[in-house]
Amino acid sequence: MSDRPSKKLKMDSEAEKVAEAAEEHLKQHPHPVPTKQPYVAHDDGEFKDWIKHQTTAEQAQKLEDGPNNAFTGNKFSQKYFDILKVRRDLPVFAQRQQFLDIFQNTQIMVFVGETGSGKTTQIPQFVLYDDMPHLAGTQVACTQPRRVAAMSVAKRVADELDVELGEEVGYSIRFENKTSPKTILKYMTDGMLLREAMDDHNLSRYSCIILDEAHERTLATDILMGLLKQVSIRRPDLKIIIMSATLDAEKFQSYFNDAPLLAVPGRTHPVEIYYTPEYQRDYLDAAIRTVLQIHATEPEGDVLLFLTGEEEIEDACRKISLEGDELVREQNCGPIKVYPLYGSLPPNQQQRIFEPAPEGANGKPGRKVIVSTNIAETSLTIDGIVYVVDPGFSKQKVYNPRIRVESLLVSPISKASAQQRAGRAGRTRPGKCFRLYTEEAFKKELIEQSYPEILRSNLASTVLELKKLGIDDLVHFDFMDPPAPETMMRALEELNYLQCLSDEGDLTALGRTASQFPLDPMLACVLIGSPAFQCSEEILTIVALLSVPNVFVRPASARKRADEAKMAFAHSDGDHLTLLNVFEAFNSEEAMQHGLHQWCRDNFLSYRSLTSARSVRAQLRRIMEKHDLDLVSPGYDDPDYWTLVRKALAAGFFMQVAKKKSGNKGYLTVKDNQDVLIHPSTVLAAENEWVIYNEFVLTSTNYIRTVTNVKPDWLVELAPKYYNLDHFGDGDVKLSLKRIIERVETMNKQKEKKDKKKKSKSS
DNA sequence: GAGCACTGC
Asked: What's chain A's Rg over C-alpha atoms?
């Protein structure tokens, strides 16, 4: 264990630096944007002298002190006062007046607060006491990138304001709207606010919009920022607050026309950072050794190790457990308990990470080790972590516009991520972070921030959303980070082939309908087209299943049995049809009587995915009804049942087609000419000439996954524009298509002739 | 013959 991390550095207090910079900035940019509106709402009582956007921190505090709740008129409870005491101890509280000074004098501001500052819970309340939205019938919105956060923060703030959750304070997320006409503060996902903006371009019900966790740069937050920048001009009365963790604050400021900044320090314990003296070739091995070393030599405290994916994590857990037991036997170390943590882990196993560490022995501490993906970096916080081991990698989504493929790639993390990971060690007491790379690499090789999602994604659905938001000129849309032109072109092209956009780039009726569905445009189009094939009920099921995580479970210990279980649902014409069979079975009387959980376990299916598919399906079905799209099924008795479903799929998936290579065993994707193999998980036998696929999986080999057999005649008939051979490169695919198109044309002509004859005969 | 990191509508 010679290359134990050795170099030692103190983590900088970023907050102090940012606060100084902010003060300096304020001196230079006083921002006299006049949005003050003298406005007296009530003349009956306590708000008689209150003027919108002129409250002082002192006045607000007086209102908070009670005895009556300013928003409900009710008498405050004892619990309220207990919580109030804790709140007044938060770092943000000390800067309430400073916040109000900026907030009242400017339309857009940037607020920076580290973890533990209390920004997410307190800032919206500061706004409430200054804005009094209940008097004007407006609302304050605060967005979060994740659903659980929106829910749990709303619950907390409802308690802090001494109101019932869902009344004055509520939340709005997919599948659940917990708000009422009384709601004045609404926590919501960023995606949900974006949906609202599609129907109300001015977001007119809000007097203030707070974008929280803006540094995460989710697709939805990025679009909202561009949108709010425009809305702010049309609505000078709308206040906007961009909230972020420390880094990148200047970028937000300059994007929003040099908006003023307020920074508040967080409340975390110091974390000592250690680097390795040299580059680690095998980071997995180095990580395992570091964890064991911590266990053998460091005082009490739990360990968090960041790795990239499920397989790696399970592998590391096994090795750490084995070697940890050896340490117990040979060096009298305390017991060690290792837990994996990743998104696809069943919830009850995820919960196990909160079990207490094992008791120590022989005067040596027992220890809990959690081996996790990035889920522990942002989504899940675990108290009691004192040691973090950071190899410096994570799986990140990348998009290749040339072949229109999104894939996951193990890549170095950013400085911001590294800092976030280190911070996980200092939540309850001072901690240590072991970085398995050199300090040199940290400084010179890691980028400051991860690339925002908008630069790493297929933008088909984003472009459709923007069009629906009324933004016609996408080229000049003011993105904070403009996506690559090729990515935009690909998206526009794809939407044009789907007939969601006209040749002029305008939204078509189909496009307008498609934008209403929370789906990838291609899936939305399959769904909208399905009534024409009399099978919208079937397509609803398939589309829902395609938009949730994989329903098939394949544990390493029972691969063969899992595969056999899957074959019981198999349909010889493909994986899409197999999904349909699975869902039918899941909804059967038999499964119900068996108990759905048990039934899923017995059949190696994911209960979580299937129930979530059920909610998605119900939501999609409601949207279909709302748009008068027929809900129909051919019924099992129809001899064309499966053919109709396959045709309906082909009508939307015509851009994701592969043709078998002649003589060879592989396939070639149509138009992009990529060599691919059908993923081994398919139920499809090998002899199909033409297949549609749901997904292109880019690994050591290229696979297409979730594949169904189709007839090429359907493709050329359903999407003549896409199958215009002038746009195809020469080769096997083009030749075959040419023959098919000729055949189809002759057949159509013959049919026409026959029809004409019939007509003239009958008349 | 086997790569679904993590979110969101």
From this structure: 29
Question: What does chain A come to in residues?
Answer: 763
Distance A681 CA to B1 C1' (A): 8
Q: pTM value?
A: 0.88
Closest C1' nucleotide to A550's CA = B4
Q: Which CA-bearing residue is nearest the C1' of B3?
A: A699
Collect all residues with Cβ–Cβ distance below 8 Å to A490 and sequence separation of at least 6. A401, A404, A458, A459, A460
**Residue indicated by tokens 């189009």:** A525
DSSP state of A360: P
For A464 and B6, how far is CA from C1' in angstroms?
23
User: Which stretches of chain A drop beneath a pLDDT of 50?
Assistant: 1-15, 18-19, 22, 26, 29-44
Three-state DSSP class for residue A428: coil
Nucleotides of chain B touched by protein CB (<7 A): 1-9
Tell me how far apart the alpha carbons of residues A499 and A467 are, in angstroms, rounded to a whole number.
14
Query: How far apart, in Å, are the Cα atoms of A634 and each of A524, A540, A572?
Result: 20, 14, 19
3-state secondary structure of A430: coil
pLDDT, one tens digit per residue, over A455-500 is 999 999 999 999 999 888 888 899 999 998 889 999 999 999 999 9
Q: Nearest protein residue to B9's C1' (by CA)?
A: A518
Tell me how far apart the alpha carbons of residues A80 and A338 are, in angstroms, rounded to a whole number. 40
Torsion of CA A404, A408, A412, A413, to 10 degrees: 100
Provide the 8-state DSSP code for A557.
G
Measured between alpha carbons, how far is A170 from A184 in angstroms, rounded to an integer?
8
Among A251, A255, A246, A253, CA closest to A227: A255
Phi, psi of A462 (to 5 degrees): -65, -45
pLDDT tens digits, residue range A397-415?
888 888 888 888 888 999 9
| Å separating the CA of residue A299 from the C1' of nucleotide B8 | 41
- Rounded to 10 degrees, the C-alpha dihedral A641/A645/A651/A655 comes to -140
As a whole number of Å, the end-to-end CA separation of chain A is 95
Q: Smallest Cα–C1' distance to nucleotide B6: which residue has it? A: A375
Residues 366-405 of A with CB under 7 A from strand B: 373-375, 379, 394-397
H/E run at residue A355: none
Are A613 and A551 spatial neighbours (Cβ–Cβ below 8 Å)?
A: yes
C-alpha span between A550 and A556 (Å, rounded): 16
Q: How far apart are CA A626 and CA A236, in angstroms?
A: 35
How far from A142 is each of A55, A64, A86, A153, A185, CA to CA, in Å?
A: 21, 21, 22, 10, 8
H or E segment and range at residue A289: helix A283-297
Q: Is the CB of A706 under 7 A from strand B?
A: no
Q: Which of the nucleotides lies closest to A375 (Cα–C1')?
A: B6
Structural tokens at position A572? 């010889």
Checking each nucleotide's C1' against the CA of A219, the nearest proves to be: B8
With a pLDDT cut of 70, the percent of chain A lying above it is: 93
Q: Which nucleotide is nearest to A148 (CA to C1')?
A: B7
The separation, in Å, between residue A408 CA and nucleotide B4 C1' comes to 9
Residue A410: nearest nucleotide (C-alpha to C1'): B5
Return all residues near A17 (Cβ < 8 A) that are at least 6 apart. none
Inter-residue long-range contacts of A30-39, CB under 8 Å, 24+ positions, other chains counted: A31/A102, A31/A105, A31/A106, A31/A258, A31/A259, A31/A260, A32/A105, A33/A105, A33/A106, A33/A107, A35/A104, A35/A105, A35/A106, A35/A107, A35/A236, A35/A237, A35/A239, A36/A104, A36/A105, A37/A237, A39/A136
> Closest residue to B8 by CA to C1' distance?
A191
